[in-house]
Specification:
It comes from Actinomycetospora corticicola. The protein is α/β, with parallel strands linked by helices. It is 33% helix and 26% strand. The chain folds into three domains: 166 residues, FAD/NAD(P)-binding domain (3-Layer(bba) Sandwich), CATH 3.50.50.60; 112 residues, FAD/NAD(P)-binding domain; 106 residues, FAD/NAD-linked reductase, C-terminal dimerisation domain (Enolase-like, domain 1, 2-Layer Sandwich). It is built from 16 helices and 22 strands. A hairpin with a 4-residue loop joins strand 21 and strand 22. The longest helix has 19 residues. The relative contact order is 0.12. The model has no long low-confidence stretch (mean pLDDT 96).
């Protein structure tokens, strides 16, 4: 006999897992969520929210510095950390209260699948709650990966958790990895007063974006004083007193007060009992467009699945999952407004913003990825600073927009915006791509003057409409 019998049990109470449980419960299913750490997950306390809280003040300072007649003064790091704590204080009582108010059962402890439709929750006091559920959803997120660097396990390196929750600015910071976490935290800490060095194995930063976007980001980081080392790797690290000493494969040596490991993440599926149902632990769960992994009872969403590793995409998957569970509980066909387009959206219309300076906001294909997908495309770009809105927004505005057009269908399949304050421009491109709006129709979407959105008109003119 199970201690708890519910329609849906979700392992992982981050924003993705919470959304599954809430969406299913709002439509009549009983739901429980299991969480071994903080309710609200990685995004709320150690990733999206605190990192943006650290970046916004230094971003605003840089923006003011570009505007004659305005003096922002120096950044007060202590006040930046204090404001960060208002958004990401690791106290999850508010999140737990929300679950309770929503009628969702919270089980604090480590959840493991013990068989089909069965989960055991091991609590901190040593007791266990056995849960029987019609549907089990894995929403356990991801954990940092450590590259094979000699000594890396012995130097108390920072991960995204330590760097976003730090209470001091180290005199110097070594960053291993030039992906999103690496470049965002390099931006924040260099401008808060640290001396930052980024070591990137690849030949450019954030390799998934358009090459020109990566080039301008690197130029901006270096202008701030960040030492960017491309095409090189750390081979060994050790502590020498208060410093971390890193040896590189080119024979040089770096020293820093702290080392941030930002070299990627892996699904948090290693200790879930997946082997009890014939699945391999530690791997991403292969979920289909309905988020189904196995039979009609096991589902996966967010970083634990094979989908895009972004909070907003995980929440999109969560909405699909909740609707699928409700449909199956009623014996109805699975589909509807989410499931029928999930695969297309995941493959061709994933938006992302990198909150560096310049910001990089992109959705869909780059020119290279579109060509690799076999599409016939033409990419056109335009300098945002050459629009009235861009030139008014900041003196010497440095940024550009690119659209990638499928020339067979005359629709946009990718867009990238680079520059100060471009983050919110990406959603217009997302709508155009998801809606497959023909360029001939998009021509009639008139941008307001004088705003940076005028770049849309200039892109269409450049393309030749």
């Amino acid at each position: 006999m199970a201690d708890l019998d519910v329609d849906v049990v979700v392992i992982g109470a981050g924003p993705v897992g919470e959304n599954v449980a809430d969406r299913a419960h709002q439509q009549g299913l009983s739901a429980a969520v299991v969480e071994a750490g903080l309710v609200g997950g990685e995004c709320s306390y150690y990733a999206c929210i605190p990192s943006k809280a650290l970046l916004r003040p230094v971003d605003l300072k840089a923006a003011v510095d570009r505007m004659p007649g305005v003096d922002a003064g120096p950044v007060d790091a202590a006040k930046v950390f204090e404001r960060r704590d208002q958004f990401a204080n690791p106290d999850d009582s508010g999140q737990a209260d929300w679950l309770d108010g929503a009628g969702i059962t919270l089980l604090r402890g480590r959840g493991r699948i013990t068989g089909e439709r069965a989960v055991a929750v091991e609590h901190a006091d040593g007791t266990t709650t056995d849960v029987a559920a019609r549907y089990v959803v894995v929403a356990t997120g991801s954990v940092p990966t450590y590259p094979p660097v000699d000594g890396i396990a012995d130097v108390d390196a920072w991960t995204n958790r330590e760097v976003t929750q730090a209470s001091h600015v180290p005199d110097s910071l070594l960053v291993l990895g030039g992906g999103v976490v690496g470049v965002e935290m390099a931006t924040a800490y260099q401008r808060l007063g640290s001396r930052v060095t980024v070591v990137q194995h690849g030949e450019r930063l954030v390799p998934g974006v358009e090459p020109e976007a990566a080039r301008r980001l690197q130029a901006s980081l270096e202008a701030d004083g960040v030492d960017v080392r491309l095409g090189t790797s750390m081979t060994a690290v050790k502590r020498d007193g208060a410093e971390v000493v890193a040896s590189l494969d080119d024979g040089t040596e770096l020293r820093g007060a702290e080392l941030l490991v930002a070299a990627g993440r892996r699904p948090g599926t290693a200790d879930l009992g997946l082997d009890t149902v014939g699945l391999e632990p530690g791997k991403p769960l292969d979920a289909d467009e309905t988020t189904t992994v196995q039979g009609d009872w096991l589902y996966a969403v967010g970083d634990a699945s094979t989908g895009a590793k972004l909070t907003h995409m995980g929440k999109y998957q969560a909405r699909i999952c909740g609707d699928v569970l409700v449909a199956r509980s009623k014996g109805a066909s699975v589909g509807g407004r989410y499931a029928k387009t999930a695969t297309t959206t995941e493959q061709t219309a994933v938006p992302q913003v990198i909150f560096t300076d310049p910001q990089i906001a992109a959705v869909g294909h780059t020119e290279a990825s579109a060509q690799q997908a076999g599409l016939h495309v033409r990419a056109v770009s335009y300098e945002i600073g050459n629009t009235a809105g861009g030139s008014l927004h900041a003196d010497g505005y440095d940024g550009f927009a690119t659209i990638v057009v499928d020339t067979d269908r005359e629709v946009i399949v990718g867009a990238t915006f680079v520059g100060q304050d471009v983050a919110d421009m990406v959603h217009g491109a997302t709508i155009a791509i998801v809606g497959e709006v023909p360029l001939a129709r998009l021509w009639h979407a008139v941008p307001s003057f004088p705003t940076m959105s005028e770049v849309w008109l200039r892109l269409l003119e450049t393309y030749g409409m």
